[in-house]
Amino acid sequence: MSQLSNVDEAKRAEWMELYERMLLIRRAEERLGKEAQAGNLPGGVHLYIGQEASGVGVCSVLEDTDFITSTHRGHGHFLAKGGDLKAMFAELWGKRTGICKGMGGSMHVADVSKGILGANGIVGGGIAIAAGAAMGIKVAGEKKVAVCLFGDGAANQGVLMESLNMSAVWSFPVIWVLENNGLSEFTITRKVTAGEFTDRARAVGLPTITVDGNDVLAVQAAMKEAVDRAKSGGGSTFIETLTYRIRGHLEAEDAFLGGYSYRTQDEIDVWKAPDKDPILRFAARLIQEGAATAEELEELDAQVIGQVDEAVRYALDSEDADPELVFDITFSGQRA
Amino acid sequence: MSQLSNVDEAKRAEWMELYERMLLIRRAEERLGKEAQAGNLPGGVHLYIGQEASGVGVCSVLEDTDFITSTHRGHGHFLAKGGDLKAMFAELWGKRTGICKGMGGSMHVADVSKGILGANGIVGGGIAIAAGAAMGIKVAGEKKVAVCLFGDGAANQGVLMESLNMSAVWSFPVIWVLENNGLSEFTITRKVTAGEFTDRARAVGLPTITVDGNDVLAVQAAMKEAVDRAKSGGGSTFIETLTYRIRGHLEAEDAFLGGYSYRTQDEIDVWKAPDKDPILRFAARLIQEGAATAEELEELDAQVIGQVDEAVRYALDSEDADPELVFDITFSGQRA
Amino acid sequence: MARQRYIQAINQVLLDEMERDKNIILFGEDVELAIFGDTREVFARFGPERVYNTPICENSLTGMAVGAAAAGRRVILHLMFGNFIYTGMDAIAHQMAKLRMMTGGQMNLPITVIAGYGGGRSLAAQHSDTPYPTLMNIGGVNVVTPATPADAKGLLTTAIRGNNPTFFLEASGRGGDSGEVPEGDYLVPFGKAAVAHEGQDVTICAIGTMVRPALKAARDLEKLGISAEVIDPRTLVPFDEDGIAASVSKTGRLVLVDEAKDRCGAASYIAGLMADRCFHALKAPIKRVTVPNVSMPYAGNAESAIFPNPEKIVAAVLSIVSADQKSFA
Amino acid sequence: MARQRYIQAINQVLLDEMERDKNIILFGEDVELAIFGDTREVFARFGPERVYNTPICENSLTGMAVGAAAAGRRVILHLMFGNFIYTGMDAIAHQMAKLRMMTGGQMNLPITVIAGYGGGRSLAAQHSDTPYPTLMNIGGVNVVTPATPADAKGLLTTAIRGNNPTFFLEASGRGGDSGEVPEGDYLVPFGKAAVAHEGQDVTICAIGTMVRPALKAARDLEKLGISAEVIDPRTLVPFDEDGIAASVSKTGRLVLVDEAKDRCGAASYIAGLMADRCFHALKAPIKRVTVPNVSMPYAGNAESAIFPNPEKIVAAVLSIVSADQKSFA
Ligand SMILES: Cc1ncc(C[n+]2csc(CCOP(=O)(O)OP(=O)(O)O)c2C)c(N)n1
Ligand SMILES: Cc1ncc(C[n+]2csc(CCOP(=O)(O)OP(=O)(O)O)c2C)c(N)n1
Ligand SMILES: [Mg+2]
Ligand SMILES: [Mg+2]
Predict the structure, then answer these.
(1) For residue D4, how many other CB atoms are within 10 A of its CB?
(2) Does the pTM exceed 0.90?
């Protein structure tokens, strides 16, 4: 612990946890990017790099019993909500020790015991699932929330307006978290979007909060407000976190683009800069507030990288998926 | 022509046309209701009675080359846009002289030569079709509009938000006409709807107009504004016409309800009263402004009823549909 | 035993099961006043806490069923017309049918989707489809098609108490038939065909709404000296391959009767199975009496022209019985 | 003739046809930068007046295709992955496939929908479906599944110039194959199967992506002294029943290879047709080599375990050739 701390020990511990979680996502995904580009993963990966503050801020105020639905860019959400790194890596390598036994892969990482109802390969696929989970919570009178994480591309799917409407009509304990990174694959979302997404939520009477999605504490504060509201019966909230995707839509994007591009290197560099990058920013804050020293953070980084290395080893050492399993698990208690 | 007219002859002729069109819809549908209840029609019918001012006001400013998409409650739209009564009746009786040769029936009356792209049995089914037609118009640089008529029930279908968004992004020449009769089958739409529909349109930046849907001139005025905007390249407008469905969701509704009800007779009576019913109201206005006498209107009524009788005879006298036709027309130039 | 109409049998199961298991929720468009009558009284009895009369938005409804089930509820979703299965197809094909598998079996999805299907009432193309082939092909959802009030009761109870997404497809239009329905708890297992009528010369395998015309055809054939076995699979997923194969092995001839369109329909599927498995027992071509590859026209005469009926079934049987007899002549 | 990759052949047709007919419009998600490469340069060449790079909203896109066509345009809609056909299914099943019929034939709907389908690349369940059985069953849309760059060119040209809704399903994943492609105007008619390899002992009917493994199997079978005819229907709607029947009548044996799931898949459909029409010519059971009734798992080994391949095709052929030989022994 550093000497000149402006923050008390509880806060310090909490902040360090947030930082570590963001760092874990970053280092894990940097490694996944490398492995994907080296052709070591069976499928492709969509990296969350640059958006870590959003998922970590959001999940930092949730319990294991709260639900999240996620997206094709779901590794960060999975880890932020307490998913196990080794089980995730094993999944991405298609191994039987994977969190989904190798059946789901990158776009489908899920841990129901942690309330992670799954990443989703269908853009907008998690929206109605979250609304339904919230309906289920409400029916049972449970003190839980369902959080739907989705992108700006997904926000143009009509299913969102449908589900927003119902969440407002019945005060479902659901929190809509639009992670607005400005991009839908290779399309600038603004070019295909009229108006502000928050206005669509306001049109059905939902309270909305727009927040700097690269400031983990700001995201956390917004979520606290929303969770308090939902758990005290006040219904749904719509949060927009403004962020940016630093990596390509998917690894190997260059091959898909074939020489074309949809953004400039300058734009990317702006978001990678220390005042924007969610991890560099929070690191500076930790140091500035005396919550940690640069050395402590470096040490932590080494530890995290160690964890990532270990997870890769675990994945590589694990047995291949069971090819018969799909017939047993498509249905419960019934062979497909 | 009456003596003490406040309106000039051109206006008088225009008003009388609006009145006659509303009356034609009313009398035609009253007859259809009777025939349906007597079991003389192959399928069911959803009557537009009480909403005539909306469809007639909307279509009164359109050309044959403009498009409309309609709903399951589409007879009124069909007739308002200039569809032929006899061909419509023959269609409902399932005859080969029907406007769709007996293949479509009540929920699918269409006359492409008049720009009527079809009634639709899928709630919300006409929405994207209208957006697409408007896209088609824009690409060709034609001076036309596409008008989408849809109900308050349909307005909760997500496809609406999707298509609203695109119509705003690309300034499509499409006019959204929400005919808000307060009901979705046996459900009070307000109970399943959060906020105002117009706010959803405003959220994507569309201009909106809410209008008394039982006042044909008010509807016409709103439409004029919208059509002018669309045809001069100003893009899309969202109009809400407030109206009421006097008849059941479908004829024989009582059998479906099995003794239950979703509204009171009082409520219905309010909307049937002379100050609300679109036809009685406009009749009073015509007389008051000296555009017609009560006798002239009665005479017109007799004429219209005569037309309806003739259309029934035409339908009855027509040959049955060709049962082989479906194989020839499913595809163009290719047998199914 | 008590005589009940098909739709009443369904209604009774819904009331009984929701009474029995407080974890069941039910939702859908117009379920409060029940346009088909099958959800009557459900809202009045169980209230807005467990019954949601929803806006019209099938794309969300199918996804919400998945979410509510994943959150631990037992879900009944009423989709009204079978056609609206296409409207809500995204979450059916992508979530309901796949989520359990994709998560390595981490969750159960106890979901019963109710919808009425089929034509024959001049409801025109958008309200007359028989969409089970799509459901059968996507893999991962059960499909049941009860033909009688008793099977409606037994299969719906099994569906609701089961732990898998199941489409319970009502013969709603012509489902007014009455029949004897066992009282008390009554479950019909999935994957067990019923022999609706025993016979020796030919197997008529008829699905759902088609069982009735098939039985009529069997009676007519009897008068012609032909003994037809009418077999009703009752559930299409899971499918009682053994049951059908046993009958075909016995009779050596197979006619399939299916209200779905012919191309990639259930009849094709069963024909394909039997053309592999029972080839050596077959004495004649496998015949399909189905709706041809067009949507339902409105006019009554045009609709009945393409609809399967007893005459067409009899003709199909005669075409293979005589063909076969000729081959022995 | 020029050697081209499959995806290039498609791209070239899009550019040529849009040049040739100013009435063509093209739209879809990310068509501007072309994630599959097939729409490359289209936006740059024809601009935002004729090419719309859309938001993500498949439910509207499929309906808009219908509206734009009804308004007189010739429409190309790119739906990216075949799975998104399920997402936009409502307007496909209810409008695209039915509107012409329901209006008594008042309108043409010249719509070409492009989508890539199939598994085999660890894209997991939601990006690996082969959805043509649903399209075949709904009736009212054409379905084409080119296996070679030449057929991609010829069928896409026919689709675009035709007046009916047509799903052009790309073997995108493994579609990088090169092949000779005729230069200039080149149209392949719908409903005409291609004999990809002539043979005498057994017909292997393989669809789209499955033609390649079927040809490999045929070569392997040759080494075992078995002469297999590989036939590629090329279009599933319309379907060349006569062409397949002629081959089956000649060989007396049929193996179907289909990447769609087995239940109500294209293989079942063809098996059903042939079990009726070619029954008397058949010397052995009809075999299907298909994907079983489950969605695609992610792990490579699990995926290939359920995927059709040359070995499975050879085994299916051997199972009926030997059975038959025994019957003659
Ligand atoms: C229904 C559907 N349509 C299209 C796609 C293809 N696709 C995958 S990601 C993506 C862009 C999504 O953008 P956004 O929701 O903003 O998420 P981001 O990638 O920015 O995290 C698209 C179009 C898909 N997976 N699902
Ligand atoms: C996709 C779809 N879902 C449900 C239905 C059943 N349905 C027919 S009309 C109707 C209510 C429509 O309400 P609204 O749009 O307000 O039209 P109105 O009947 O009031 O004219 C419903 C739910 C349908 N036809 N299509
Ligand atoms: Mg985005
Ligand atoms: Mg209404």
Answers:
(1) 21
(2) yes
